[in-house]
Amino acid sequence: MKKYIVLYSSRTGNTKKIAEAICSALPAGTPCRSIDEAPTDLNGYDCLFIGFWVDRGTADQQTQQLLRQLSHPHIALFATLGADPCSQHAADSLRNASALCPGENPLVHSFICQGKVDPQLIEQMKRMFPPGHPHAVDEKREAIHEEAKKHPNEADVAAAKVFAAETVKRVENM
Ligand SMILES: Cc1cc2nc3c(=O)[nH]c(=O)nc-3n(C[C@H](O)[C@H](O)[C@H](O)COP(=O)(O)O)c2cc1C
Predict the structure, then answer these.
(1) Which of 47, 87, 92, 117 is disulfide-compatible with 82, CB 3.0–4.6 A?
(2) What pTM, to 2 d.p., does this model score?
(3) How would you classify the pairing of strands 107-114 and 75-81?
(4) CA distances, 61 to each of 66, 117, 121, 127 (Å)
(5) How many C-beta atoms surround the C-beta of residue 54 within 10 A?
(6) How far apart, in whole angstroms, are the C-alpha atoms of residue 29 and residue 35?
(7) What backbone phi and psi angles, to 5 degrees, belong to 27?
(8) What residue's CA is closest to ligand 1, atom 21?
(9) How do residues 32-45 score in pLDDT, each as one tens digit?
(10) Are strands 4-8 and 32-34 parallel, antiparallel or unpaired?
(11) Which domains does the chain have, with CATH numbers?
């Protein structure tokens, strides 16, 4: 049987929740670790699931560091973000993160869903960005933050498990 590992970075728990859902859909005994606790040698795994929280349109710093130094042929990326997961911003964030991986197109599959935004960040944005600024917390952004408060929800968890199962199928057929 192929071997997998789930590694994630999570400040406030959203990405960790998705990491655990993914792990629950992988073969029993698959490790699920925070990136701080990643094994130094990842060569024994057939595919690495790597999860990040979106930070200014790409992976958070800790995940960036890991992705840049990886040389693994099979990577499945997953992420959570405050914005609409169907937005161009979400697609760009995944693409920006995957572009950090060295090697010939190692991305096997990817998944992204919404996650609640730290209220402190929202307050900071309100103070920093005046009305009319592209990052101002206007009505539209407030609505996105309200929706984000409900995520990751059960549907996100179920979709993450489907993503894990699909990834396994792809890896098994490689
Ligand atoms: C410093 C900072 C920058 C962020 N940048 C973005 C961003 O560019 N786009 C976005 O949609 N969400 C952004 N977010 C929201 C987080 O990606 C989102 O809340 C995520 O689910 C947090 O995951 P975690 O609970 O695993 O830390 C940012 C959050 C923080 C704290």
Answers:
(1) 117
(2) 0.97
(3) parallel
(4) 9, 17, 17, 24
(5) 25
(6) 18
(7) -55, 145
(8) 115
(9) 999 999 999 999 99
(10) parallel
(11) 4-116+152-172 (3.40.50.360), 117-150 (no CATH)
DSSP state of 75: E
**pLDDT 10s digits, 62-84:** 999 999 999 899 999 999 999 99
E-assigned strands of 82-167? 107-114
Site to probe by mutation for ligand 1, drawn from 18, 88, 118 as the one with most ligand atoms within 8 Å of Cβ, is: 118
* Interstrand relation of 32-34 and 47-55 (parallel, antiparallel or unpaired): unpaired
CB atoms within 10 A of CB 164: 24
| 75-94 residues labelled b (16+ CB within 10 A) or e (exposed) | bbbbbbbbbebeeeebeebb
Per DSSP, the residues of 7-22 read EE--SSSHHHHHHHHH
Token pair recorded at residue 129: 């960005």
In short, whether 14's Cβ falls inside 6 Å of ligand 1 is yes
